[in-house]
Amino acid sequence: MLTAFRQHLLKDILSLPTAPFHEVHVLRCVTARLQDAGVPFFEDPAGNLIVGVDSRAAYGRLLREKSGQPVRLFIAHMDHPGFHAVRWLDEKRLAVKWLGGSPVRHLAGARVWLSDGEDGLLTEGRLRKIKLLKQGWAMDTAEVYLPQRLTPRPPARRLFGGLQFRAPYWRSGKRIYARAVDDLAGVFAIVATAIDLFRHGKTGAPPFLGLLTRAEEVGFVGAVRHFDLGWLAQRSRPLVCVSLEASRTLPGARIGKGPVVRLGDRRTTFDPGGLRLLSDLAERLLPGRHQRRIMDGGACEATAATAWGIPTIGLTLPLGNYHNQGFDGGMDCPRAQGPAPEFVHADDVDGLLRLCRGLMRPNLDWQTPWAATQARLRKNTQRFKRYT
Asked: How far is CA 283 from the centre of its chain?
């Protein structure tokens, strides 16, 4: 069950306005929470937030320690599909460019929020004159109509926004609704895990890194820029990437049935040894309360990590109304496949935190995760020795 502290932290993070390349509100909130808890952090040259160490030098030292225990690199992204303002058309109309996935039906007149990156939400507006991408899977451009002019009027290039609903965040029973769960829930999980690790007053740095990335929704831009720095290639100890996501519901990945051990995404399968260890851990910590599946409704940063040669595993929350598309109904979803808030289940979030914390246990057998399977298969083989 989520503690009061974690519920408050989750609400704070999921309430934040964000869009690709406009993650400033998330950065401010997260860094303030980490600082209050005494968790070290710093920004890389691409503007991603590194959690668990306070400098490039400390990052390198952790990766060069003599240890058979891998550094666990937890990765989540701070953005969510949204729009950038392009230019003012007049005092109440903005031309905007959409970045990332979106609903493609019932968009005319849909509510949107608007921010300048400084003071949170400036105002609300309505979508007009929507044009879809040529491929038809998301919005491309639109106009945003404001009910009142902004005074003073900020430069268009500072403005960004996304779809708006009754509130940034609310709960109905154990369902958690928000404008953006993907992937602010993953950001929350990394921050909560880091606070838990560093709050216990242990000496020495745990083998933990958090990588909170920018602009995942347009092709893993922040993650790719971080990997291209070459810092991880200089490691001399094992490393495993743990991708945290909120992913579209699929058969075998249902809301309320537990977090999903993600075996792969739309682009690739993940590290078999690491997945064996993660699956065994989930069986111990969440027996009957977790799921296992290739989540091929989309791709995630695990694909990028795999492409850069990093052994990668994944955890995901089953997500209702992925990318604010009304696939799964629920509150504030008046028409199927139109704009809708995303939602997850509180028990799934709690299970995700349990698995993140479990992955930091020092006694996990990362070197020989298939040992128990080998022993079982050898024992079975002996039963048939007389036939050979």
From this structure: 23
